[in-house]
Amino acid sequence: MEKAISRPTATTGHGSIKADMNLDRAMEKGDRGNITQIQGNAHFYETVTAAPLNPWSRTSLQLYMILLVAALNATASGFDGSIFSSINAMDQYKAYFHHTELGSSTGIIFMIYTIGNMVGSLFTGPICDHFGRRAGMMTASVLIVIGAAIQTAAQNDSYLLGGRFILGFGVSIGTSSAPTYALELAPPQWRARVVGYYNTFFYTGSILATGVAYAAAKNNSELAFRLPLGLQLVPPTFIFIGACLIPESPRWLTMKGRKEKAATILAKYHGGGDMDHPMVKLEMREFEQNIELQNTSSVWNYWALVNTHNARWRFAMMACMSVFAQMAGNSVLTYYLPSMYRLVGIQTTEKRLLLTFVNSIVSCAGAVAGSASNDRIGRRTKLWVGSIVLAGLFGGVTGFSSHCEDTTKQVGPALSNGGVAFIFLFGCAYSFVYTPLTATYCAEVLATPTRAKGMGVHVILSNCANLYNTYVTAIALDSIDWRYYLIFVGLNLLYGVVWFIFGVETRGRTLEEMDDVFNAKFPPRAALQKAFMVRQEDGHLQGLEEDDLEGRTTK
């Protein structure tokens, strides 16, 4: 039988002997109730159960406020990414800039933001690796303020394009550095939920953007679109102030040789102030063993992302998530949702803006539920099952849209409402599956020394897909309407197959323990290896190797 990936769990010989005695006693009595099977690393589960962290302690509450600063980067991204889909539907905006709701010129306006994202991503790794994760968030805040100010005051297309380019440039740095920071600071046992909630703050910005746009659209002057654009200045201001006050990532500090400072931060937020807390010792030991050994590349060296078997598998998982999340159909909703409502028979601008606002709330609910389930549902399972569900829901959108193609005929309320319902369901399901995992999974599968650069590449790959979405989608919806949706139905079915066969599970391990998984010949299988725990007389769980249990059961 193949040996479990889980490393030996006891730090002393006495611990192993005690576990063996308890296991033998349980097997002799035929009592397998004391033996627990888990997916992940036994040592990690042993440490978590032996010394649980109080989620309502003073330091835990402080940690939540610190991570809120990082989450505001997602809010800024949600506001910036969603505001233009609503503004693009405003008659005031179209009249002032002489634009149409769909077509080539509109595609360019959306696309320049994506190009700014891609260019900014090239600088994410060097800034975050050399100056720190906080510096990345602060740099992003300054750029977003500059871009938003230019865009708000724009008098013609040149200023509008320039502002959106700088805005996209800054957002890319913020949305790469912030999840990296959150992942590296969050306690391992809370990692999936904490970082999953990070991305749900995208919808905080999206709800604010669509709500403000709906209210502002009632104004007949150019203030209708300038006020929502001006509010883009608010989130980065709070981010900059907050980033000046929060601690640096302990993993980045370890990379820079500042181990004592890293240990102090870990003790405060992962160990309740105890430097001898088992989780603090486990993390510092793994930092020293993994981060220092791998920390050999310069800040501009991206070759380390693909130069080994381990690195190539990590890169492949990150690349799949980056592209699949953007090409699942949600980008069509993000950028052209009001236009999609037109295709299902909703013709008035006011009603389309209202439905866009409501959809943001529904999607937010899906994202919160998805984040809460991250520790209970494995990443791989959520992704492959979710992809199939998304294919079915987008098929529903396609079907209803096909019956509303003839705009010369009055669309019945049943058809119109059915189309809207499937759009809402797709947005909610997408938010449940991808929103909590996109940044989380990409950051989890990347090694610490290459995480910031890898997250920069994640943004580049995401925006390569978005270049297609923002430019081609505008033309395709204008030319072939609902038939364009069939592409996303097929793609989601393909994604389900890819995630089922090749998806690497990350649940149940620290970031450093993922190195064992990716060193395996076929990481997807290695990640699904089971570990076993035996309950001690004092109620604590002791980790065991899988082949130890196998040997006893076959005697």
Describe this structure in words.
- The protein has one domain: Growth Hormone, Chain: A (Up-down Bundle), CATH 1.20.1250.20.
- Helix content is 72%, strand content 3%.
- It has helices spanning 13-28, 42-50, 58-87, 91-97, 104-131, 133-153, 157-185, 191-216, 223-230, 234-243, 250-255, 259-270, 278-294, 309-326, 330-343, 349-372, 379-402, 413-433, 438-445, 448-480, 486-502, 514-519, 523-527, 546-553; strands at residues 35-39, 530-535, 541-544.
- It has a three-stranded antiparallel sheet.
- α6 (133-153) packs antiparallel against α7, α6 (133-153) runs antiparallel to α9 (223-230) and α12 (259-270) packs antiparallel against α13 (278-294).
- The model is unreliable at 1-23 and 26-30 (pLDDT under 50).
- It is a multi-pass membrane protein.
- Keywords: Membrane, Transmembrane, Transmembrane helix, Transport.
- One of its GO terms (molecular function) is carbohydrate:proton symporter activity.
- InterPro entries: MFS_dom, MFS_sugar_transport-like, MFS_Sugar_Transporters, MFS_trans_sf, Sugar/inositol_transpt.
Low-confidence stretches: 1-23, 26-30
Please report which band the strand proportion falls in: under 5%, 5-15%, 15-25%, 25-35%, 35-45% or over 45%: under 5%
The CATH topology = Growth Hormone, Chain: A
Cα end-to-end separation: 15 Å
Q: Order of strands side by side in the largest beta sheet?
A: 1-2-3
How many strands? 3
Helix content: over 70%
Name of the CATH first level: Mainly Alpha
Number of domains: 1
Q: Which CATH architecture is right?
A: Up-down Bundle
Structural class: mainly alpha
Note the main sheet: 3 strands, antiparallel
* Shape, per Cα inertia axes: globular
Query: How many whole angstroms does the radius of gyration measure?
Result: 25 Å
User: Could you give me the name of the CATH homologous superfamily?
Assistant: MFS general substrate transporter like domains
Q: Give the rounded overall mean pLDDT.
A: 82
